[in-house]
Write a structure and sequence with these properties.
By secondary structure, the protein is an alpha/beta fold. Helices cover about 35% and strands about 25% of the residues.
């Protein structure tokens, strides 16, 4: 019977949790322990009431998330946050959260898996964060409009909407970079220019990145923050389920972003 601390220690080592810098509110790793042996694993992008209720319905007492209990910063345990905690404790559900360590993992990570989904082969890194590369990059020869259609097909399964900066007819993607989630920023655009990347694939980004991109000849495909970060938690849950012989499920709770 696998207990949460054994499973969490293995996952920390697998993802390199202690070695990778992240935002202070990420608090990667085991965020809430439980008492009973793990009998079921649920995975979700965000720690939310819908995700917790989905874990309860699936009979899971471990919920793996990308954005954890403290993602929005410190808050008082009242209202929705109090109700979430009560449900977790009532059903003895542990919470394990992984943000950037999961984004960058070479086999279970959001970026490498999204590249695979879009028919792209990742051969390099991208999106430097504190000396660690979170994203991936590679070379291709595909019409950018066809790549957009692949992204739309992928995102539609998660109620996602894909947006793209203006592209000319027949434009081809020869060198691409990818950073899931909030991957478009002034820093990633500068990095793309240095690497001579012509197409950037992200989840979302601020408005100014679209203006900068068009004027520099860069196409950005905004494939949805939520959709682009569904892959890692699902892969991690499936990996742990197979290793420990525990059923694993994905709780789809789209945010519309």
């Amino acid at each position: 019977m696998t207990k949460i601390h054994e499973l969490a220690a293995y996952t920390d080592e697998l993802l390199g949790t202690d070695d990778i810098p992240d935002y202070p509110s990420a608090l990667n790793g085991l965020q809430l322990e439980n008492r009973s042996a793990i009998r079921g694993i649920a995975a979700a992008v965000d720690l939310s009431t819908r995700a917790i209720d989905g874990a309860v319905r699936a009979g899971a007492n471990l919920l793996i998330v990308h954005h954890g209990m403290f993602w929005g910063g410190l808050e008082q345990l009242r209202g929705a946050s109090y109700r979430r905690l009560c449900t977790l404790l009532e059903h003895d559900i542990a919470i394990y959260s992984s943000h950037l360590p999961l984004d960058r993992h070479p086999t279970l990570g959001n970026n490498v898996l999204l590249a695979n989904e879009l028919g792209l082969e990742s051969t390099g890194t991208f999106a430097d964060y504190g000396g660690f590369f979170i994203g991936v990059s590679g070379e291709s020869d595909v019409e950018t409009s066809a790549l957009v259609q692949r992204a739309k097909k992928f995102a539609s399964a998660f109620s996602g909407e894909v947006r793209v900066t203006p592209i000319t007819q027949g434009r081809r993607t020869k060198r691409w970079g990818m950073c899931t989630g909030a991957g478009a920023s002034s820093d990633t655009l500068k990095e793309a220019a240095k690497m001579k990347i012509d197409t950037l694939i992200v989840g979302e980004g601020p408005h100014h990145t679209a203006v900068q991109a068009e004027e520099s000849g860069l196409a950005i495909i905004y494939a949805g923050h939520y959709a682009t970060e569904t892959l890692g938690v699902r892969a991690l849950a499936d990996h742990l389920g197979a290793k420990y012989g525990i059923p694993a499920n994905f709780v789809n709770a789209p945010t519309g972003l």
